[in-house]
Write a structure and sequence with these properties.
Length: about 425
Protein backbone atom coordinates (compact mmCIF):
# COMPACT_ATOMS: atom_id res chain seq x y z
CA UNK A 1 0.00 0.00 0.00
CA UNK A 2 1.38 3.43 -0.95
CA UNK A 3 1.68 6.32 1.53
CA UNK A 4 1.61 9.99 0.55
CA UNK A 5 3.85 10.24 -2.48
CA UNK A 6 5.73 13.08 -0.75
CA UNK A 7 6.80 10.82 2.13
CA UNK A 8 10.55 10.07 2.13
CA UNK A 9 11.09 12.34 -0.88
CA UNK A 10 13.98 14.82 -0.81
CA UNK A 11 12.58 18.22 -1.76
CA UNK A 12 14.63 21.36 -2.27
CA UNK A 13 12.48 24.38 -1.54
CA UNK A 14 13.91 27.47 -3.22
CA UNK A 15 12.61 30.79 -1.93
CA UNK A 16 13.14 34.05 -3.81
CA UNK A 17 12.44 37.66 -2.86
CA UNK A 18 8.75 38.40 -2.95
CA UNK A 19 6.12 39.17 -0.33
CA UNK A 20 4.63 35.69 -0.92
CA UNK A 21 7.77 34.32 0.77
CA UNK A 22 5.73 34.23 3.98
CA UNK A 23 3.50 31.56 2.40
CA UNK A 24 6.61 29.46 1.77
CA UNK A 25 6.70 28.80 5.52
CA UNK A 26 3.28 27.08 5.31
CA UNK A 27 4.38 25.17 2.22
CA UNK A 28 7.57 24.07 3.99
CA UNK A 29 5.62 22.96 7.05
CA UNK A 30 3.13 20.95 4.94
CA UNK A 31 5.96 19.24 3.07
CA UNK A 32 7.60 18.24 6.36
CA UNK A 33 4.24 17.02 7.72
CA UNK A 34 3.80 14.90 4.56
CA UNK A 35 7.05 13.14 5.45
CA UNK A 36 9.40 14.82 2.98
CA UNK A 37 12.97 15.79 3.79
CA UNK A 38 13.12 19.48 2.96
CA UNK A 39 16.27 21.49 2.30
CA UNK A 40 15.59 25.20 2.00
CA UNK A 41 17.67 27.42 -0.27
CA UNK A 42 17.05 31.16 0.03
CA UNK A 43 18.21 34.00 -2.20
CA UNK A 44 19.56 37.26 -0.68
CA UNK A 45 16.29 39.00 -1.51
CA UNK A 46 14.18 36.25 0.11
CA UNK A 47 15.96 36.89 3.41
CA UNK A 48 14.69 40.48 3.31
CA UNK A 49 11.14 39.10 3.59
CA UNK A 50 11.51 36.13 5.95
CA UNK A 51 14.39 34.82 8.06
CA UNK A 52 16.27 31.54 7.57
CA UNK A 53 15.55 30.80 11.24
CA UNK A 54 11.85 30.26 10.43
CA UNK A 55 12.73 27.49 7.99
CA UNK A 56 15.43 26.03 10.24
CA UNK A 57 12.79 25.67 12.96
CA UNK A 58 10.35 24.06 10.52
CA UNK A 59 12.80 21.63 8.91
CA UNK A 60 15.32 21.07 11.75
CA UNK A 61 17.94 21.35 9.03
CA UNK A 62 20.61 23.78 7.98
CA UNK A 63 19.34 26.51 5.63
CA UNK A 64 21.39 27.21 2.50
CA UNK A 65 21.90 30.64 0.96
CA UNK A 66 25.57 31.19 0.14
CA UNK A 67 27.25 29.24 -2.63
CA UNK A 68 30.65 29.72 -0.96
CA UNK A 69 29.51 28.73 2.55
CA UNK A 70 30.95 25.21 2.73
CA UNK A 71 31.46 23.93 6.29
CA UNK A 72 34.60 21.79 6.77
CA UNK A 73 34.11 18.24 5.66
CA UNK A 74 30.91 18.95 3.68
CA UNK A 75 30.46 18.66 -0.06
CA UNK A 76 29.88 21.68 -2.28
CA UNK A 77 26.16 22.33 -1.61
CA UNK A 78 25.01 23.02 -5.15
CA UNK A 79 26.39 19.67 -6.28
CA UNK A 80 25.31 17.52 -3.32
CA UNK A 81 21.82 19.08 -3.01
CA UNK A 82 21.26 18.96 -6.75
CA UNK A 83 22.17 15.27 -6.84
CA UNK A 84 20.02 14.22 -3.87
CA UNK A 85 16.83 16.04 -4.86
CA UNK A 86 13.67 14.30 -6.06
CA UNK A 87 12.07 17.65 -6.81
CA UNK A 88 13.07 21.33 -6.78
CA UNK A 89 10.21 23.67 -5.90
CA UNK A 90 10.77 27.42 -6.29
CA UNK A 91 8.01 29.28 -4.44
CA UNK A 92 7.69 32.16 -4.71
CA UNK A 93 9.54 32.48 -8.01
CA UNK A 94 10.17 36.13 -8.93
CA UNK A 95 10.31 37.32 -12.51
CA UNK A 96 14.04 37.90 -12.00
CA UNK A 97 14.71 34.28 -10.99
CA UNK A 98 12.50 32.95 -13.80
CA UNK A 99 14.50 35.06 -16.28
CA UNK A 100 17.75 33.66 -14.91
CA UNK A 101 16.45 30.08 -15.18
CA UNK A 102 15.26 30.64 -18.74
CA UNK A 103 18.67 31.97 -19.73
CA UNK A 104 20.80 29.46 -17.89
CA UNK A 105 22.28 31.97 -15.46
CA UNK A 106 23.83 30.64 -12.27
CA UNK A 107 24.72 33.64 -10.15
CA UNK A 108 23.51 32.38 -6.77
CA UNK A 109 23.13 29.04 -4.99
CA UNK A 110 19.49 28.49 -6.06
CA UNK A 111 19.97 29.16 -9.77
CA UNK A 112 23.15 27.06 -9.72
CA UNK A 113 21.25 24.14 -8.18
CA UNK A 114 18.49 24.58 -10.77
CA UNK A 115 21.06 24.19 -13.53
CA UNK A 116 22.87 21.29 -11.87
CA UNK A 117 19.93 19.13 -10.76
CA UNK A 118 18.53 16.25 -12.81
CA UNK A 119 15.36 16.47 -10.65
CA UNK A 120 12.12 17.93 -12.04
CA UNK A 121 11.50 21.61 -11.28
CA UNK A 122 8.21 23.19 -10.19
CA UNK A 123 7.89 26.97 -10.07
CA UNK A 124 5.18 29.08 -8.44
CA UNK A 125 5.53 32.60 -9.90
CA UNK A 126 4.56 35.64 -7.83
CA UNK A 127 4.70 39.17 -9.23
CA UNK A 128 2.64 42.17 -10.28
CA UNK A 129 0.31 41.62 -13.25
CA UNK A 130 2.29 43.89 -15.59
CA UNK A 131 5.49 41.96 -14.86
CA UNK A 132 3.71 38.63 -15.45
CA UNK A 133 2.18 39.83 -18.72
CA UNK A 134 5.43 41.36 -20.00
CA UNK A 135 6.57 39.62 -23.21
CA UNK A 136 9.95 38.91 -21.59
CA UNK A 137 8.33 36.96 -18.72
CA UNK A 138 5.90 35.20 -21.07
CA UNK A 139 8.70 34.13 -23.39
CA UNK A 140 10.81 32.97 -20.42
CA UNK A 141 7.89 30.93 -19.12
CA UNK A 142 7.24 29.39 -22.53
CA UNK A 143 10.89 28.37 -22.71
CA UNK A 144 10.88 26.88 -19.21
CA UNK A 145 7.68 24.91 -19.87
CA UNK A 146 9.16 23.61 -23.11
CA UNK A 147 12.11 22.36 -21.06
CA UNK A 148 9.73 20.45 -18.80
CA UNK A 149 9.51 22.89 -15.89
CA UNK A 150 6.09 22.58 -14.21
CA UNK A 151 4.19 25.80 -13.67
CA UNK A 152 1.87 26.33 -10.66
CA UNK A 153 -0.14 29.51 -11.17
CA UNK A 154 0.04 32.41 -10.81
CA UNK A 155 -3.48 33.01 -9.55
CA UNK A 156 -5.73 36.02 -9.88
CA UNK A 157 -6.27 38.07 -6.75
CA UNK A 158 -5.03 40.90 -4.58
CA UNK A 159 -1.35 41.69 -5.16
CA UNK A 160 1.29 43.32 -2.95
CA UNK A 161 0.58 46.72 -4.56
CA UNK A 162 -3.08 46.47 -3.58
CA UNK A 163 -4.12 46.03 -7.21
CA UNK A 164 -6.19 42.99 -8.22
CA UNK A 165 -5.01 40.87 -11.12
CA UNK A 166 -3.05 37.81 -12.19
CA UNK A 167 0.30 37.36 -10.48
CA UNK A 168 -0.54 36.13 -6.99
CA UNK A 169 1.28 33.00 -5.85
CA UNK A 170 -1.09 30.02 -5.69
CA UNK A 171 -1.88 28.68 -2.22
CA UNK A 172 0.53 26.21 -0.60
CA UNK A 173 -2.05 23.36 -0.82
CA UNK A 174 -2.18 23.77 -4.59
CA UNK A 175 1.62 23.77 -4.86
CA UNK A 176 1.68 20.63 -2.74
CA UNK A 177 -0.85 18.95 -5.04
CA UNK A 178 1.15 20.02 -8.11
CA UNK A 179 4.27 18.55 -6.47
CA UNK A 180 2.42 15.24 -5.99
CA UNK A 181 1.24 15.32 -9.59
CA UNK A 182 4.81 15.94 -10.82
CA UNK A 183 6.33 13.20 -8.65
CA UNK A 184 3.53 10.81 -9.70
CA UNK A 185 4.86 10.80 -13.23
CA UNK A 186 7.27 8.13 -11.99
CA UNK A 187 4.48 6.19 -10.15
CA UNK A 188 3.54 2.54 -10.73
CA UNK A 189 0.38 3.53 -12.67
CA UNK A 190 2.19 5.98 -14.98
CA UNK A 191 0.79 5.62 -18.51
CA UNK A 192 -2.41 3.95 -17.28
CA UNK A 193 -5.69 5.46 -18.42
CA UNK A 194 -8.14 5.01 -15.54
CA UNK A 195 -11.83 5.91 -15.42
CA UNK A 196 -13.66 6.07 -12.09
CA UNK A 197 -17.30 6.89 -11.35
CA UNK A 198 -18.46 8.55 -8.14
CA UNK A 199 -21.61 9.67 -6.37
CA UNK A 200 -25.27 8.79 -6.56
CA UNK A 201 -27.19 9.43 -9.77
CA UNK A 202 -30.23 11.71 -9.65
CA UNK A 203 -33.35 10.69 -11.56
CA UNK A 204 -35.63 13.65 -12.14
CA UNK A 205 -39.31 13.47 -11.16
CA UNK A 206 -40.26 17.09 -11.85
CA UNK A 207 -38.43 20.47 -11.86
CA UNK A 208 -38.15 20.26 -8.06
CA UNK A 209 -37.69 16.62 -7.12
CA UNK A 210 -35.51 13.65 -7.94
CA UNK A 211 -34.85 10.08 -6.81
CA UNK A 212 -31.34 9.48 -5.50
CA UNK A 213 -29.37 7.73 -2.75
CA UNK A 214 -26.92 8.52 0.04
CA UNK A 215 -23.69 8.32 -1.99
CA UNK A 216 -21.48 11.39 -1.51
CA UNK A 217 -18.73 10.43 -3.96
CA UNK A 218 -16.08 10.11 -1.22
CA UNK A 219 -15.11 6.55 -2.22
CA UNK A 220 -14.77 7.43 -5.91
CA UNK A 221 -12.80 10.60 -5.21
CA UNK A 222 -10.43 8.67 -2.93
CA UNK A 223 -9.77 6.29 -5.83
CA UNK A 224 -9.26 9.19 -8.25
CA UNK A 225 -6.85 10.87 -5.83
CA UNK A 226 -4.84 7.73 -5.15
CA UNK A 227 -4.65 6.81 -8.86
CA UNK A 228 -3.54 10.34 -9.75
CA UNK A 229 -0.80 10.15 -7.08
CA UNK A 230 0.39 6.87 -8.62
CA UNK A 231 0.76 8.42 -12.07
CA UNK A 232 -2.48 7.33 -13.78
CA UNK A 233 -4.27 9.60 -16.22
CA UNK A 234 -7.59 9.79 -14.39
CA UNK A 235 -11.06 10.62 -15.72
CA UNK A 236 -13.65 11.07 -12.99
CA UNK A 237 -17.31 10.76 -13.99
CA UNK A 238 -19.19 12.17 -11.06
CA UNK A 239 -22.48 13.48 -9.74
CA UNK A 240 -20.78 14.85 -6.61
CA UNK A 241 -19.51 18.36 -6.00
CA UNK A 242 -16.36 17.56 -4.00
CA UNK A 243 -13.09 19.26 -4.87
CA UNK A 244 -11.43 17.58 -7.84
CA UNK A 245 -7.73 16.65 -7.45
CA UNK A 246 -5.44 18.70 -9.72
CA UNK A 247 -4.64 16.75 -12.88
CA UNK A 248 -7.88 14.72 -12.81
CA UNK A 249 -10.31 15.29 -15.71
CA UNK A 250 -13.88 15.69 -14.45
CA UNK A 251 -16.99 14.79 -16.43
CA UNK A 252 -19.96 16.03 -14.39
CA UNK A 253 -23.16 14.03 -14.82
CA UNK A 254 -26.52 13.74 -13.13
CA UNK A 255 -28.59 10.75 -14.22
CA UNK A 256 -27.80 7.07 -14.82
CA UNK A 257 -28.30 7.62 -18.57
CA UNK A 258 -25.80 10.53 -18.57
CA UNK A 259 -23.32 8.47 -16.57
CA UNK A 260 -23.75 5.57 -19.01
CA UNK A 261 -23.15 7.83 -22.03
CA UNK A 262 -20.05 9.37 -20.43
CA UNK A 263 -18.65 5.95 -19.46
CA UNK A 264 -19.22 4.47 -22.94
CA UNK A 265 -17.58 7.53 -24.48
CA UNK A 266 -14.31 7.34 -22.51
CA UNK A 267 -14.05 3.63 -21.86
CA UNK A 268 -12.95 2.97 -25.44
CA UNK A 269 -9.52 4.37 -24.57
CA UNK A 270 -9.40 3.22 -20.93
CA UNK A 271 -7.15 0.60 -19.39
CA UNK A 272 -9.19 0.43 -16.20
CA UNK A 273 -12.81 1.20 -15.24
CA UNK A 274 -13.77 1.37 -11.56
CA UNK A 275 -17.51 1.87 -10.94
CA UNK A 276 -17.86 3.06 -7.37
CA UNK A 277 -20.91 5.21 -8.17
CA UNK A 278 -24.29 4.26 -6.73
CA UNK A 279 -26.30 4.18 -9.96
CA UNK A 280 -30.10 4.23 -9.69
CA UNK A 281 -31.67 1.05 -11.05
CA UNK A 282 -34.98 2.82 -11.73
CA UNK A 283 -36.08 6.24 -12.95
CA UNK A 284 -39.55 7.82 -13.31
CA UNK A 285 -41.15 6.68 -16.57
CA UNK A 286 -42.00 10.29 -17.39
CA UNK A 287 -40.61 13.59 -16.14
CA UNK A 288 -43.31 16.11 -15.23
CA UNK A 289 -42.74 19.45 -16.92
CA UNK A 290 -44.25 21.36 -14.00
CA UNK A 291 -43.99 20.82 -10.27
CA UNK A 292 -46.40 18.04 -9.25
CA UNK A 293 -49.08 19.43 -6.92
CA UNK A 294 -50.56 17.53 -4.02
CA UNK A 295 -54.27 16.78 -4.11
CA UNK A 296 -56.57 18.90 -1.95
CA UNK A 297 -57.91 15.69 -0.39
CA UNK A 298 -55.09 14.61 1.94
CA UNK A 299 -56.31 11.01 1.97
CA UNK A 300 -55.37 10.61 -1.71
CA UNK A 301 -51.80 9.37 -2.08
CA UNK A 302 -49.78 9.24 -5.26
CA UNK A 303 -47.61 6.75 -7.08
CA UNK A 304 -44.87 7.15 -9.67
CA UNK A 305 -44.30 4.63 -12.47
CA UNK A 306 -40.66 3.60 -12.59
CA UNK A 307 -38.72 2.06 -15.45
CA UNK A 308 -35.24 0.49 -15.48
CA UNK A 309 -32.16 2.60 -16.11
CA UNK A 310 -29.34 1.22 -18.26
CA UNK A 311 -27.03 -1.20 -16.44
CA UNK A 312 -23.74 0.52 -17.21
CA UNK A 313 -21.45 -2.35 -16.27
CA UNK A 314 -23.59 -4.79 -18.28
CA UNK A 315 -23.28 -2.47 -21.30
CA UNK A 316 -19.49 -2.31 -20.82
CA UNK A 317 -19.39 -6.13 -20.67
CA UNK A 318 -21.36 -6.35 -23.95
CA UNK A 319 -19.01 -3.84 -25.57
CA UNK A 320 -15.95 -5.82 -24.42
CA UNK A 321 -17.44 -9.05 -25.80
CA UNK A 322 -18.06 -7.41 -29.18
CA UNK A 323 -14.48 -6.14 -29.31
CA UNK A 324 -13.13 -9.57 -28.44
CA UNK A 325 -15.31 -11.22 -31.13
CA UNK A 326 -14.06 -8.71 -33.71
CA UNK A 327 -10.47 -9.51 -32.73
CA UNK A 328 -9.94 -5.89 -31.54
CA UNK A 329 -7.93 -4.85 -28.52
CA UNK A 330 -10.36 -5.09 -25.59
CA UNK A 331 -10.88 -1.91 -23.54
CA UNK A 332 -11.04 -1.49 -20.64
CA UNK A 333 -8.55 -4.23 -19.80
CA UNK A 334 -9.71 -4.29 -16.18
CA UNK A 335 -13.28 -3.67 -14.96
CA UNK A 336 -14.04 -3.34 -11.26
CA UNK A 337 -17.41 -2.83 -9.59
CA UNK A 338 -18.66 -2.17 -6.09
CA UNK A 339 -21.65 -3.84 -4.47
CA UNK A 340 -23.35 -1.93 -1.66
CA UNK A 341 -25.22 -4.57 0.32
CA UNK A 342 -27.18 -4.52 3.56
CA UNK A 343 -27.67 -8.33 3.67
CA UNK A 344 -26.23 -11.50 2.09
CA UNK A 345 -23.11 -9.46 1.28
CA UNK A 346 -20.94 -12.07 -0.38
CA UNK A 347 -23.67 -14.00 -2.19
CA UNK A 348 -25.13 -10.84 -3.71
CA UNK A 349 -21.70 -9.45 -4.62
CA UNK A 350 -20.65 -12.77 -6.22
CA UNK A 351 -23.80 -12.71 -8.36
CA UNK A 352 -22.95 -9.18 -9.60
CA UNK A 353 -19.30 -10.13 -10.22
CA UNK A 354 -20.44 -12.93 -12.57
CA UNK A 355 -23.47 -11.23 -14.18
CA UNK A 356 -21.52 -8.06 -14.99
CA UNK A 357 -18.43 -9.99 -16.13
CA UNK A 358 -16.11 -8.11 -13.74
CA UNK A 359 -12.47 -8.79 -12.88
CA UNK A 360 -13.11 -7.81 -9.28
CA UNK A 361 -15.91 -6.50 -7.08
CA UNK A 362 -15.62 -4.69 -3.75
CA UNK A 363 -18.41 -6.10 -1.61
CA UNK A 364 -19.34 -3.12 0.55
CA UNK A 365 -21.07 -3.88 3.83
CA UNK A 366 -23.25 -0.82 4.41
CA UNK A 367 -25.00 -2.13 7.51
CA UNK A 368 -22.59 -0.40 9.95
CA UNK A 369 -22.49 3.37 10.42
CA UNK A 370 -18.68 3.56 9.94
CA UNK A 371 -18.71 2.07 6.43
CA UNK A 372 -20.34 2.77 3.07
CA UNK A 373 -22.22 5.99 2.39
CA UNK A 374 -20.95 9.39 3.49
CA UNK A 375 -18.22 8.43 5.97
CA UNK A 376 -14.45 8.58 5.47
CA UNK A 377 -13.93 4.91 6.35
CA UNK A 378 -15.06 1.74 4.63
CA UNK A 379 -15.15 -2.02 5.10
CA UNK A 380 -15.02 -4.15 1.95
CA UNK A 381 -14.30 -7.69 0.88
CA UNK A 382 -12.57 -7.99 -2.48
CA UNK A 383 -13.88 -10.83 -4.65
CA UNK A 384 -11.81 -11.74 -7.71
CA UNK A 385 -13.12 -13.38 -10.90
CA UNK A 386 -10.77 -16.34 -10.25
CA UNK A 387 -12.54 -17.05 -6.95
CA UNK A 388 -9.95 -15.47 -4.63
CA UNK A 389 -11.32 -13.45 -1.75
CA UNK A 390 -9.76 -10.86 0.59
CA UNK A 391 -11.63 -9.45 3.56
CA UNK A 392 -10.31 -6.03 4.54
CA UNK A 393 -10.77 -4.54 8.01
CA UNK A 394 -12.28 -1.09 8.60
CA UNK A 395 -9.91 1.47 7.10
CA UNK A 396 -9.91 4.90 5.45
CA UNK A 397 -11.42 5.13 1.98
CA UNK A 398 -7.99 6.25 0.77
CA UNK A 399 -6.47 3.00 2.09
CA UNK A 400 -9.25 0.96 0.42
CA UNK A 401 -8.45 2.85 -2.79
CA UNK A 402 -4.73 2.06 -2.54
CA UNK A 403 -5.42 -1.67 -2.03
CA UNK A 404 -7.83 -1.73 -5.00
CA UNK A 405 -5.12 -0.07 -7.11
CA UNK A 406 -2.58 -2.67 -5.94
CA UNK A 407 -5.02 -5.31 -7.30
CA UNK A 408 -5.37 -3.30 -10.53
CA UNK A 409 -1.58 -3.43 -10.93
CA UNK A 410 -1.71 -7.22 -10.53
CA UNK A 411 -4.58 -7.56 -13.03
CA UNK A 412 -2.88 -5.33 -15.61
CA UNK A 413 0.36 -7.26 -15.53
O1 LIG B 1 -19.99 7.79 -2.28
P1 LIG B 1 -19.76 7.41 -0.83
O2 LIG B 1 -20.64 8.20 0.11
O3 LIG B 1 -18.32 7.43 -0.45
O4 LIG B 1 -20.25 5.89 -0.68
C1 LIG B 1 -19.54 4.87 -1.30
C2 LIG B 1 -20.47 3.77 -1.85
C3 LIG B 1 -21.14 3.06 -0.70
C4 LIG B 1 -21.51 4.36 -2.81
C5 LIG B 1 -19.53 2.79 -2.66
O5 LIG B 1 -18.53 2.29 -1.82
C6 LIG B 1 -20.32 1.63 -3.25
O6 LIG B 1 -20.57 0.61 -2.62
N1 LIG B 1 -20.75 1.78 -4.54
C7 LIG B 1 -21.62 0.86 -5.26
C8 LIG B 1 -23.05 1.18 -4.92
C9 LIG B 1 -24.04 0.42 -5.78
O7 LIG B 1 -24.77 1.06 -6.47
O8 LIG B 1 -23.97 -0.86 -5.78
P2 LIG B 1 -24.98 -1.81 -6.66
O9 LIG B 1 -24.90 -3.09 -5.95
O10 LIG B 1 -26.31 -1.18 -6.81
O11 LIG B 1 -24.32 -1.89 -8.08
C10 LIG B 1 -23.30 -2.83 -8.39
C11 LIG B 1 -22.34 -2.24 -9.42
O12 LIG B 1 -23.03 -2.00 -10.65
C12 LIG B 1 -21.76 -0.92 -9.01
O13 LIG B 1 -20.39 -0.91 -9.38
C13 LIG B 1 -22.57 0.09 -9.78
O14 LIG B 1 -21.80 1.26 -10.07
C14 LIG B 1 -22.93 -0.67 -11.05
N2 LIG B 1 -24.24 -0.29 -11.62
C15 LIG B 1 -25.36 -0.27 -10.88
C16 LIG B 1 -26.57 0.06 -11.46
C17 LIG B 1 -26.60 0.37 -12.83
N3 LIG B 1 -27.74 0.72 -13.42
N4 LIG B 1 -25.47 0.33 -13.56
C18 LIG B 1 -24.30 -0.03 -12.99
O15 LIG B 1 -23.26 -0.08 -13.67
Amino acid sequence: MMADILAHKHIILGITGGIAAYKAATLCSRLVQAGATVDVVMTEAAQQFITPLTFQALTHRRIYHDIFDIPDGENIPHISLADQADLLIIAPATTNTLAKLANGLADNLLTTIALATPAPILVAPAMETDMWQHPATQSNMAKLEQWGVTLAGPAEGRLASGAVGRGRMVEPEEILDMARLRLAQAGDLAGCNLVVTAGGTRETIDPVRFISNHSTGKMGYAIAHAARDRGAKVTLISTASLSVPIGVALIPVDSAQQMRDAVMDVVRLADVLIMSAAVADFRPATVAEQKIKKKADSSIGMSIDLVRTPDILADVATYKNQMAQNGDVVCPKVTIGFAAESENLLTNAEGKLKRKNLDMIAANNISASDAGFGVDTNRVTLLMADGKKEELPLMSKRSVAEIILDKVMGLLH
